[in-house]
Amino acid sequence: MQTLSRLQSQIRARKVRMFEENQTLNRQLLQKREKELDKLQANQIGEKWDDSSKSKEQVEAQVLNRQIAAMRRQKALAYASTHQVRRYCLLDFNGTSETSF
Fold first, then answer.
1. Which domain does 14 fall in, by range?
2. Nearest to 21 by CA among 93, 90, 81, 101
3. Model pTM?
4. pLDDT tens-digit map of 71-85
5. How many angstroms separate the CA atoms of 8 and 42, rounded?
């Protein structure tokens, strides 16, 4: 009986450790994406010659739309990854789900 209890506590500790590691990785990934977004913004706003017939306002609106789309993608990825983690953590020790999805 003690071995079962010890095994359950080890499994619980492993799940908590994996959850924390996953959170750390997600934070690092989000920071990396933010840096890449900043680089992208700097490149788009940079001093490159634009030979198009668009007005300044149209170009700025296009850049803004791209930034908004990138933020939406980033938010969707973060949402999906957190819900995957939550679902993993909701599993009980027998490998069955406590809630139905």
1. 2-39+55-89
2. 81
3. 0.39
4. 999 999 888 887 776
5. 51
